[in-house]
Amino acid sequence: MLMYSWMKFVEVAPERYDWAVKVMTAGRLDRIKDIIAQAIHANDRVLDIGCGTGTLALRCLRRGAHVTGLDSSAFMLEQSQKNATAEGLDHELVLIKDSVTQLRKHFADESFDVVMSTMALGEFPHQYLQYILRDCLRILKPGGRLIIADEVWPEGRAGRLIYQAVLALSWVPQFLLLRRVTYPIGNLRGIIKEAGFNLTDFQTWSGTSFQLVFAEKVAAQESFARQPSKLISVALTT
Amino acid sequence: MNQVRNYLWELFHIFFRHYNFPCDLGLIRIGNPDQNSPVFLSGNYTLVVQRLLRVLKKTGIDCYLLVANSRGSNVWCATGMNEYSEHDIVDAINVAELHEVVKHRKLIAPPYAAPGVDVRWIKDQTGFIVKWGPTHLNDIPRYVANGFQRTNDMLQAQFGFQDRLEQALSTGLAYCLTISIGLFFWPKYVLIVMGIIYFVYLYSFCFWNFFPAEYHWRRSLTIAASLSVLFVGFGYWRGWTGTQFIIWEAMLVAVVSLYAMDACGSSTLYKATITHWLKKGDYHSLFDPVIDPEMCTNCHQCVLVCPRDVFAAKREGVKKVVSVKPQDCIECMACVKQCYDDAIFNRSGKYKGDVKSIPNIDYLMTRDWSHLKDEDRWIDHPTTIRKGLPVLQPPPLTVGVSVAEVVQ
User: What is the DSSP string of A114-155?
Assistant: First the structure.
């Protein structure tokens, strides 16, 4: 769980970002991004949500896909642009600065073959994820794929216990150094399924605490009208 | 029993105020709100949200509270770190489907969020207009009773006794936790140091108003000297040797210096750099705002968000906003963020750089302002308050002129 805090910490200095992520994940995230990129075909229309410094977007560009990157941080997008320019791919990469809940403002229904996101959705709570994934479902073509890699709560009971222990241990240095606590996604695959996707494949690392999920939009979708928003009712304590 | 639990909950969060505790995001209903009820906006720092709910309930009105993601910290700290931006608010509006919940398009927002929130973008994307509310949540009942209008005191950065006490308790705890590892090695001495830390912090924050303002280290020296007198008395009573006294006196001076350097950023009243304090002995901010009258479009956004009344509206002649009290600025950068005309220049050319929410801040802060030397004439110009906002006082009527006019 130190991962997210570490990322938050280095986010203000994007030039060190890629290096910091590499150190933190011991190169694992790079391997995961390679796996994702292998699933991308030439001429696929791809959306990268929370593209960060564009490392995954560039991998997909090299495979001949048309990539759009979305991020809410101007600093990150600038770094993406620099990285793309360094490889001469800056004309191919479309970058958009906006919030993740604004997908439908930018993209028509059924306009992408692949929507992917790595280490970006973790900071959102359940209700937000539901909203974002419903939008993803809309903007994907029938048969289009959703690929998400993120840190999650482990699924087995033993894994959960170990994870809890690591969380508790890391809580002290985190609090002292960064004054931050962060919470991973619970039940990632459940949320994706709930949004109407068909799960096709998944891989896990570190005792299921890091998951890579492949899902698919079923060809014939029934209408997915939005349900009216649920209001949280809070019992006042005093 | 419930009462006791709530009391302990609050006490825990007061002590851990320096740490992030996120609560659930979303729209909270207070009372029985309908399509026309007001919507208040907040971050998701759990202690503030609980207090807000209590205060809003006390006002007796039906309303909504929209909790947007500030990553579990207070909005002022979060927004400066770019962790509570227009994106988080738009996300909250979208996910809560606020368009369908209310008919109006107004959000009452904490003005401490101004350093990092692009309100124009929120309006473009969602149609919602951000209206700045009072800075302090305790003022909300008065604000509501006043017909949702702020009086001037509701705009000001406040640091009342309760805030100061809580600040002392929580900062003391943060430092005690940091040195707590030493408890395993020298439990007695570390405990005494912890006691000194708490004593210095409680003493300085509780008697805040009794010390002189920091000017050539005057405030810090007063605190150190008064506590030293106490130490001498205590040492005499306990029969300390000279060496013992010197050791503890050095410890006291170290803790007071820590407190003094911490005060560069630990209150709502100052923002300075440690280097500046060491060199000059005061907490003046580096940022020294001045407005270019050619670029200012008189939108008043800077006046609306300034927690120190640095700016005042000029109503005579060409209507502009001018900088009247730049020396009171606490460098929150709310005016710079809210100025869509980039009309605010920096006389000093220097800034602390802790606000990360303005992408082109380097350029804005170090621009050449030599063409604005003339604007110095507004510094310390007398002002009055109109509709809660500072306005330049018109020049006094000279009798001679009016008599001459009559004669003509």
Answer: EEEEESSGGGS-HHHHHHHHHHHHHHEEEEEEEEEEEEB--S
